[in-house]
Amino acid sequence: MTLQGAIAQQPAWIGYWLNWLLFGAFILPVSLLIWRQSRVAAIVTVVASVAGAFGTNWLYTKMGYVKLLGLPHIIVWTPLAIYLFGQIRRADMPKWPRWIIGVVLASILISLAFDYTDAMRYLLGEKSPLARPV
């Protein structure tokens, strides 16, 4: 079963959330390329999100659909969140990129809340797969 197939077995809200995350962490940051002041933030965010996605897919191939799948996000998005918070506070950052970075940061922080919770639950013993092979 693919990761997408395993996700499809989950409650519908998980699919909706992942669709939002695709927008908030991959697509929306590309719009930051418009402004000179936010171009580095755009590139850093997209690269980190792609790295997190590849890491999650790789971990899925090794372990299946378990609560530890958020670990790649924890590794790449925690420093990204700190970086983006600093970008919002920049005096030279225009209003629109600041707002976009805020939406991206909020999306990443919500995802990280799920990821940290799931990783802790995994480390505390919840290691059974969340989706069964079809």
Specify the oligomeric state: single chain
Distance between the termini: 7 Å
Specify the biggest β-sheet: none
Number of domains: 1
Number of distinct helices: 5
Can you give the helix content as a percent range?
over 70%
Structural class: mainly alpha
β-strand number:
0
Mean pLDDT: 92
Residue stretches low in confidence (pLDDT < 50, at least 5 long) are none
Provide the succession of SSEs: HHHHH
Work out the strand percent. Answer: under 5%
Globular, elongated, flat, extended or rod-shaped: what is the shape? elongated
Question: Rg to the nearest angstrom?
Answer: 16 Å
Describe it.
This protein is mostly helical and 134 residues long. The protein has one domain. The chain is 70% helix and 0% strand.
Describe the structure in brief.
70% of the residues lie in helices and 0% in strands.
